[in-house]
Amino acid sequence: MKLVVVSAGLSVPSSTRLLADRLAAATAGRAPADVRVVELRDLAVEIAHNFASGFPGPDLASALDAVAEADGLIVVTPVFSASYSGLFKSFFDVLGVRDQDALAGKPVLIAATGGTARHSLVLDHALRPLFAYLKAVVVPTGVYAASEDWGAEGLPERIERAAGELAALMTGLSAGRGTERAEQDGSGTDGSGKDGGFTVVPFEERLAALRG
């Protein structure tokens, strides 16, 4: 499976990238996957040029392809003016223009960092609506990390819970695709229409169980 992490942190080192790395490690520990990190800071110039020319540069095109082909996505942004950063939004604007269905049905874990806990509602007021509009499946638990959360109780538990939800959705989708391919070529069944070695739980049932 492929797990892509989109980090919109601007500083080096970045608390946004730190949170992204922790979420990726926790997810990959539950659902083994090839992890690719997309640092939007490195793509800022190409994103701006894309708006002017309509064509992505090679690095931006590679990042857009990686996001579109991912089995799961982790997105992390710093909070600017009580919302996601302009760079973060611009990247997904470019993705949406290129392919409006690029995130359709894709499991996405949303996360954000900020200087104060007062901005934690950015997850539900900004990030969740954005990815719902892009037709993604947003995991129930979002992760917000304020400055005081680092090293405190609560953040590790939220990271683990969100990662578990994303891993479950990624695993369910991967298994579903494998079953579909087996049915198409006639393999993977015992002749009775049932899978020989495992039971595939439909994606909708997994999502309902997580939300319940």
UniProtKB/TrEMBL annotation:
EC number, UniProt record: 1.5.1.-
Keywords for this protein: Flavoprotein, FMN, Oxidoreductase
Region described as Disordered: spans on this chain: 176-199
Superkingdom classification of source: Bacteria
One Gene Ontology molecular-function label: oxidoreductase activity
Stretches assigned to the NADPH-dependent FMN reductase-like domain: 1-150
Top class in the EC scheme: oxidoreductase
Aminoacyl-tRNA synthetase is among the record's keywords: no
SUPFAM superfamilies: Flavoproteins (SSF52218)
UniProt xrefs under Pfam families: FMN_red
PANTHER family assigned: FMN REDUCTASE (NADPH)
Name of the protein described by the UniProt record: FMN reductase
